[in-house]
UniProtKB/TrEMBL annotation:
PANTHER family per record: GLUCOSE-6-PHOSPHATE 1-DEHYDROGENASE (PTHR23429:SF0), GLUCOSE-6-PHOSPHATE 1-DEHYDROGENASE G6PD (PTHR23429)
Organism: Rhodovastum atsumiense
Transmembrane segments: none
GO cellular component: cytosol
Entry protein name: Glucose-6-phosphate 1-dehydrogenase
Domain called Glucose-6-phosphate dehydrogenase C-terminal: residue spans: 184-480
Gene behind this protein: zwf
GO molecular function: glucose-6-phosphate dehydrogenase activity; NADP binding
Single GO BP term: glucose metabolic process
Length: 484
């Protein structure tokens, strides 16, 4: 179903995010027939480009994204594109942008800030001065929203001066992933899990987001962020919220966000008193990744003194009625052995065994939600090994693979999220209080690490992080579940 006609203004239109994600995502939605004929995409950046130059850049971005677009479809998409050169630090260009938008005043206006966060405030000021921030116009902001609670508040204030909260869309692209949305379906469209989804039945939860890539061309940004800010403050805490939240009253944006906020507010603080038993940070050294040798982080960065973490493992706890005492082990890192993200709910063991020793060990049930790749859900159960050999038990998965069950192309998260902005649906976007509450949990961890003279622990590229990350879980008599 096509969405209403809109004008999408992409600031930072020549940058990495626009080329890798936004333009290909819009192209795919056009292909699916969801962009109405009059919909336009207006690229903005400081570079002096013509409309034609921008269309060439977009064409390269779409072709370079692994698509082999059909010429007619691509040409139709490119006709939607135009370009305005404007700089948040100068007056030039803003009247031209206003004039372009004035051509179709009835269109929904979306301003996508795919720029450095320092520019969010200045761009919104310019939009305000040009009279473009009013009406139903919406603004989309990308992470990182700040580097700390104070800076996140400053960004939120600056954007909030021109756009009301119901017109601000803070993107966390993990929320647009099919499998992440499926978490809500799994939890709230099945009666089976809810009675078990609590401390009495669940021993612990593991959330792993592993990448094989290093920092690639982003070392400049990454070195000022590190894994805790880059992945945990946003994506991983959002996943934790979706696993742990109470059933919302509805799927309306505020109903869902209220429940996530309660989880964030219930996180047990980590800081000076418990930093060593609760967190491990690591930094990759040279090693092997995907079959070839790779340099270490410090060599890639060209700065041997950096203490930025490229890996973090931590033990979070949620102090509420449902989850008290259940550890949520989180780990994420670059240059790990596989690109794999998954959530594991490990159930408690059976209270008593009626089987004798010849049946073999009885393993506890486990629900594994594979977010990417090979998206699917596995529920591990004990069954009788078939055959006449007596009662021997085996741990096997009930296995639901999205590819096998549906065989469809898995849309990129941005495709869903961009159209949700046009539809005015904020359910999969973060509210200001969520972002700030997440920062208020992250800040003391960052401060404790900064005050600690020990650098991050080294780990060899292509391994599962420093051995201390294994010890973090083994100290509790548990172990990381290796994704297979
Ligand atoms: C981004 C981080 O938000 O998420 C990157 O800044 C990371 O460092 C990326 O690589 C991971 O996203 P995905 O969708 O590839 O899992």
């Amino acid at each position: 179903i096509p969405v209403e006609p809109f004008d999408l203004v992409v600031f930072g239109a020549t940058g990495d995010l626009a080329r890798r994600k936004l333009l290909p995502a819009l192209y795919h939605r056009d292909l699916a027939g969801q962009l109405s004929d009059a919909t336009r995409i207006i690229g903005v950046s400081r570079r002096r480009l013509s409309d034609e130059d921008f269309r060439c850049l977009a064409s390269d971005a779409i072709t370079g994204h692994g698509d082999e677009p059909d010429a007619a479809n691509l040409a139709r998409f490119l006709r939607r594109l135009c370009y305005v050169a404007a700089d948040a630090g100068a007056d030039d260009g803003w009247p031209a942008l206003a004039a372009r938008l004035a051509e179709q005043p009835e269109h929904i206006r979306v301003f996508y800030l795919a720029t450095a966060p320092e520019l969010f405030g200045p761009i919104c000021d310019r939009l305000g001065q040009a009279g473009l921030a009013g009406g139903t116009g919406r603004v989309v902001v990308e992470k990182p929203i700040g580097k700390s609670l104070a800076s996140a508040r400053a960004v939120n204030e600056a954007v909030g001066r021109h756009f009301s909260e119901d017109r601000i869309y803070r993107i966390d692209h993990y929320l647009g992933k099919e499998t992440v949305q499926n978490l809500m379906a799994l939890r709230f469209a099945n009666a089976l899990f809810e009675p078990l989804w609590r401390a009495a039945q669940i021993d612990h939860v593991q959330i792993t987001v592993a990448e094989t890539l290093g920092v690639e061309g982003r070392a400049g940004y990454y070195d000022t962020a590190g894994a805790l800010r880059d992945m945990v403050q946003n994506h991983m805490l959002q996943l934790l919220c979706l696993v742990a939240m109470e059933p919302p009253a509805s799927l309306s944006a505020d109903a869902v966000r209220d429940e996530k906020l309660k989880v964030l507010k219930s996180l047990v603080p980590i800081g000076d008193g418990n930093i060593h038993e609760r967190t491990v940070r690591g930094q990759y050294r040279a090693g092997a990744s995907r079959g070839g040798p790779v340099p270490g982080y410090l060599e890639e960065l060209g700065d041997p003194t950096s203490r930025t973490e490229t890996f973090v493992a931590l033990k979070a706890e949620i102090a509420n009625w449902r989850w008290a005492g259940v550890p949520f082990y989180l780990r994420t890192g670059k240059r790990l052995p596989a690109r794999v993200s998954e959530i594991v709910a490990q159930f408690r063991p059976i209270p008593f065994s009626v089987f004798d020793g010849s049946a073999g060990p009885i393993e506890a049930n486990r629900l594994v939600i594979r977010l990417q790749p090979d998206e699917g859900v596995k529920l591990w159960l004990m069954i009788k090994d078939p055959g006449p050999g007596g009662m021997r038990l085996r741990h096997v998965p009930l296995d639901m693979s999205f590819a096998k069950a549906f065989g469809l192309r898995n849309p990129d998260a941005y495709e869903r999220l961009l159209l949700d902005v046009v539809r005015g649906n904020q359910t999969l976007f973060m509210r200001r209080d969520e972002v700030e509450t997440a920062w208020s949990w992250i800040d003391p961890i960052l401060q404790s690490w900064a005050a600690n003279p020990e650098p991050p622990r080294p780990y060899t590229s292509g391994t599962w992080g420093p051995s201390a990350a294994i010890a973090l879980v083994e100290r509790d008599g548990r172990s990381w579940y290796e994704p297979v």
